[in-house]
Amino acid sequence: MFNSSQFTPKYFLLTGLPGLETLYPWFVFPFCTMYLVALVGNSLILTVIKKNTSLHQPMYLFLAMLAFAELGVSASTLPTVLGIFLFGANEICFEACLLQMFSIHSFSIMESGVLLAMSVDRFVAIYNPLRYTAILTLPRIAGSAAVLGLKSVTLMFPLPFLLKRLPFCGHNVLSHSYCLHSDLIQLPCGNTRPNSILGLCIVTSTFGLDSLLIVISYMLILYTVLGISSGEGRRKALGTCVSHMCAVLVYYVPMISVALVHRFVKQAAPAVRLFLANVYLLVPPVLNPIIYSVKTKQIRQGLIRLFLQRK
């Protein structure tokens, strides 16, 4: 495979669950079920919002953006994860790996940005309900979607090219079932400082800043709610935020948990860490359609009408 000590790899080897290869058939059903729920659930959310003009409102349009981003994340990881557990296929060519890395991170950045936009949407709805639709107009929502998409693509665009210019020195085994930038920059033997600095800036300016602004948004929401005189009014105002708060927790808690396990629980078996890493990307796409279907009356009714029409 190599002609010299420095080379551009033809392929990378992905890692499933080391030491548990004989148990892969037992993991196939859970992973297939999770991917099926994620893909079908988010597709149904998009279909319901598209077909029901009454749902063409800011809250539901942002939910459609979230479903689209989660479909992207699920579709990006599905080929390699199921390829490993179904067929034992752990090879991925260099260009496909870069494309998968770009897709996973771009859709994850978009997902984080949409959650921030949804928190702003909830604040506007509670702080100034009479001007809610006047502030969050359809052109502004469309502009927000374009900005979020452009931001995620623009931030990630340089990383594949920065990786492709680097020489590799014989090691081509990745530590996950899919390609991540944090994995890939461990392999080159050249200067990876530009990649590391850019990666840190991207994480800080997206996930870090978004999470901070979401917290600030909810502090403002809580302050506004406490100013409502009636207890019933306060309950109704907070009730409109329940689904979004669950979505935020479902997104950030698994991410933080995986980071803490990788950073501090060194004695944990590699298979445990890798299983958590595989699951954490699937948790939001699987749970969010369920949360919004159960907690949001309009989505639930739209799903019922959709199924009745098909019958």
UniProtKB/TrEMBL annotation:
User: A Pfam family in this protein?
Assistant: 7tm_4
What SUPFAM superfamilies does the database record attribute to this sequence? Answer: Family A G protein-coupled receptor-like
Task: Supply one GO CC term from the record.
Answer: plasma membrane
Topology relative to the lipid bilayer, per the entry, is: Multi-pass membrane protein
Q: Which UniProt keywords apply?
A: Cell membrane, G-protein coupled receptor, Membrane, Olfaction, Receptor, Sensory transduction, Transducer, Transmembrane, Transmembrane helix
Molecular function per GO: G protein-coupled receptor activity; olfactory receptor activity
Q: Where in the cell is it found?
A: Cell membrane; Membrane
- Name the PROSITE patterns on file: G_PROTEIN_RECEP_F1_1, G_PROTEIN_RECEP_F1_2
Task: Please list the residue ranges annotated as the G-protein coupled receptors family 1 profile domain.
Answer: 41-292
Q: Which Gene3D superfamilies match?
A: Rhodopsin 7-helix transmembrane proteins
Q: Per the UniProt record, which residue ranges are transmembrane?
A: 23-49, 61-87, 99-120, 141-163, 197-225, 237-262, 274-294
Function summary:
Putative odorant or sperm cell receptor.
What's the protein here called? Answer: Olfactory receptor
Q: Which organism is it from?
A: Bos indicus
